Amino acid sequence: ISSCNSQTLSVPAGSNNTYQWKKEGVNITSATSNTYTAVESGIYACTITNGSCNYTTSNIVLTITATSAPTAPTSQTVNAGSTLASLVASGSNLQWYAAATGGNPLLLNTPLVSGSTYYVSQTINGCESQRIPVAVNLSLATEENKLMDMKYYPNPVENILYLSSEENISKVSVYDTAGKLVLVKGFNSKSVSLDISKLIAGNYFVKVEGKSKTKEFKIIKK
Q1: CA atoms of 208 and 222, how far apart (whole Å)
Q2: Over the Cα atoms of the chain, what is R_g?
Q3: CB contact set of 64 (below 8 Å; sequence gap of 6+)
Q4: Average pLDDT for 65-82
């Protein structure tokens, strides 16, 4: 059996059974349940004991291909309005995510949210590595990229998201966690309401634009 990074082995469970997994015929310490997750290549088997009876399974030959994680500064500061493409990471076939496990990959044009953490992996020979975290802060490098002083509520939100700003809000864009634009609406007011009732439940990134400033943040749609 060939696998990337790990392989979970299992045998049928029984209420009166005891189990001992072995690698190359040697007992593996604490591997005494009906499942075992192997992280190294080798020859594995399990001895199942029930009273005075015991049975050892056929050998399972595993080839584990371990892929190391990419390298990246764990905290990065970029200009406001930047996307995932602005983050620095070294590796092959890099892929970004919004969570340490699970979730869909993010597109490189996903807007970055200050104070958020993103996770990057690399894939080598078809095997994806673990994800490493990168905490992001947005700088006010230029006048055009200054952040808006604004409030938004509620969060989590079910139907209507209310926003108020020091300057007129001209456009509000909503992206899903894959970086896809799912809602955009134009405004010309300091206080606006955005109807997101048609969006499915989940996490979203919101980008608010004014005449000279922007604001990005994450919301939870109930």
Answers
A1: 20
A2: 25
A3: 3, 4, 5, 6, 7, 38, 39, 40, 41
A4: 88
